[in-house]
Amino acid sequence: MTAGFFDAIAPVAYEGPDSTNPMAFHHYNPDELVMGKRMEDHLRFAVAYWHSFAWEGGDPFGGQTFIRPWHPQDSMANAKSKADAAFEMFRILGQPYFCFHDADVRPEGNSFAENLKGLEEITDYFGQKMEETGTKLLWGTANMFSHRRWMSGASTNPDPDVFAFAAATVKSCMDATQKLGGQNYVLWGGREGYETLLNTDLGQEMDHMGRFLNMVVDYKHKIGFKGAILLEPKPQEPSKHQYDYDAATCIGFLRKYGLENEVKLNLEQGHAILAGHSFEHEITVAASEGMLGSIDMNRNDYQSGWDTDQFPNNVPEVALAYYHILKSGGFTTGGTNFDAKLRRQSLDAEDLIAGHIGGMDICARGLKAAAAMLEDGGLEDALTTRYAGWQTESAQEMLNSDLGTIFDRVLAEDINPQPRSGRQEILENYVNRFV
């Protein structure tokens, strides 16, 4: 066992909004019913293994600040020590799920065979810990962006041997996810993009990425994996331009390569902001196409131009995200993953617990506000009123008509429409009543 990393921290309990205890939940009550469903079952929280346990506190301008009992992360003994700490934190928080990259949970070997051996060993160890604690796996994935071999991409790499290494890595991670009963498998193409078109065959790289993803889907069916395959959009950083830029770009990519019925999206708030969108925009785009899978609930610092992956702290933003998730029917295999990390000055075990407490409370408040807005129906009523004209017989006939017929009608009926207010301020004020 990890020597006392979380020993001084008691399990976190729900104490209600009047509590002043910083190590208690003030809004997240897993058994509270929201729209007839337990809050825990709506939110489906999952701890991200990488930022909580594998990240060492570095940033683009400085190295390690965290000193953990499982450092250095270069042996299976320390990998198991890290797992002991992780599952202890899951117990303290009452987190129902976790998720991981292969590189987070096993040391980097000198060959694929060494990586595979480490992954298989820690997978068996995870299985024991999951059986003891009841914690489940929301999703697994492969880190194909950190090691130098991935500097020019994984499935899009100009070197076919890198493509092969990537394919073997994903197979091993899918096998681990299947063995652990994971509910999804995620692919994030951190280096699937380019720095300059001077040395990039964009069309070939896109085709290879599409073929790779088809191989993933084929293997899913071969092994009988019942979970969802998820693709995570991100516009830039680390690559100057990434092929999975945003939800709409990914949906177009999936349709081009015949994957629209096989793959859904894992959306991150921070990535949405980098793409110039709001989080609810990305959720709505995915949901409108039946491709909403799961979410990474983190945020960026709006004074920083890079992906800072902080814990959520903005209730109105979170409420609007969950509004559209609930409106689309809620999660099925997906959930709320905390792909969020401490600030590099927050060194203590207590900080790690407190970050998750705050994030879970913010999500709980957002969920309750979203449910209240849906039950009240004010936003839906406003939409119905604004688009009411399209319910008329003449409007529906126009959609099945042609330009010439519409031209004749406008002249004959002297149609001269006048603008009507979008009532944005009134609707913003409406939302503020709930958050």
TrEMBL record:
What positions does the entry give for Mg(2+) 1 binding? E232, E268, D296, D339
Q: One GO term of the cellular component aspect?
A: cytoplasm
Kindly list the GO molecular function terms attached to this UniProt entry.
Answer: magnesium ion binding; xylose isomerase activity
The protein here is known as: Xylose isomerase
Q: Where is the active site?
A: H101, D104
Q: How is the cofactor bound?
A: Binds 2 magnesium ions per subunit.
Catalytic activity, reaction form: alpha-D-xylose = alpha-D-xylulofuranose
An example Gene Ontology biological process? D-xylose metabolic process
